[in-house]
Amino acid sequence: MRKRTQTFVFMLTIAALSLFMSRAALPRAIEYSRPPVLSDGTYGRVVGRGVQCVPYGSTAPSGPISYFARDVGKPGVPRLSPSERAMLRSIMQYVHSPLLRFAHVSHGRFIVYAIRMKPGICMDEAPGYLVLNRECNVTYEPGEDPSGTGNIPDCQGLPRRPWMPGR
């Protein structure tokens, strides 16, 4: 019985040592290469009251930070210019979504968009979310290209935008 116990302890020690050695041999980049996951299952990180998304194919958040429209004026949310604030207020008169967000994308362009619960804040599925303060065919895919906007072919079938006179 004693020999069996000694053999078991020896095997356990060897297993623990080999596990330790295999973990120690892994490069650190591999160990920490998974991007951070938000509570909605998309990839990004919370920054103050905002979210910075992880672009598709990357492991680190980059690009602009987006914020909920309802957080404007709260600490940790950037101050909007008078024209940005007016546009956001105008959109909020017609779009009554608790999921309305805004961001300053490339070249400081201000965009407003409404996310859906699924797939979430950092969605990377085409065509993305419709940008509500630009032409009707402009889209934003924060999980694909958080710094820029894209386009869909046309505006056919999309709702009117009464907050944008002449469009």
Short description:
The protein is α+β, with helices and mostly antiparallel strands and 167 residues long. It has helices at 2-25, 28-31, 82-94; strands spanning 44-47, 50-53, 65-68, 100-104, 110-114, 129-130, 138-140, 150-151.
List keywords for this structure.
single chain, alpha+beta, three-stranded antiparallel sheet, 167 residues, 17% strand, 2 domains, five-stranded antiparallel sheet, globular
Task: Report on the architecture of this protein.
- This protein has two domains: 2-31; 44-151, no CATH class.
- 25% of the residues lie in helices and 17% in strands.
- It has three helices and eight strands.
- It has a five-stranded antiparallel β-sheet, covered by helices on one side. Strands 6-7-8 form a three-stranded antiparallel β-sheet, with no helix packed on it.
- The longest helix is centred in the first third of the chain and has 24 residues, at 2-25.
- Residues 5-32 have low confidence and may be disordered.
